[in-house]
Amino acid sequence: MPIYFGYPKQEKYIINLEIPEGYMVDSFPKVMKIISEDKVLSFGINTQADGNKIQISITKEINAAILSVDYYDDLKSFFQKIIDKQNEKIVLKKLKK
Description:
Low-confidence stretches: none
Helix content: 10-25%
Radius of gyration: 17 Å
Structural class: alpha+beta
Number of helices: 1
Order of helices and strands: EEEEEEEHE
């Protein structure tokens, strides 16, 4: 059976976080962009820290309503990479007084 999404779609999320006083960013997920060879699937994540603020921008696109069965393994890998990336942690470090 083909994989049916109903319609092509794009999802965008922008998440703004404020770091509590007395903490600083030690590490956060690095920039990542995944695009399938035929540009039907794409995912991007960008994380920026500025002072006591963190901004995470995420974009996911599926540019087809129906994908053939041949896409199953690529689609499974695509979503697994998204899950792995979104499970990465933002690590804060407590500042010494």
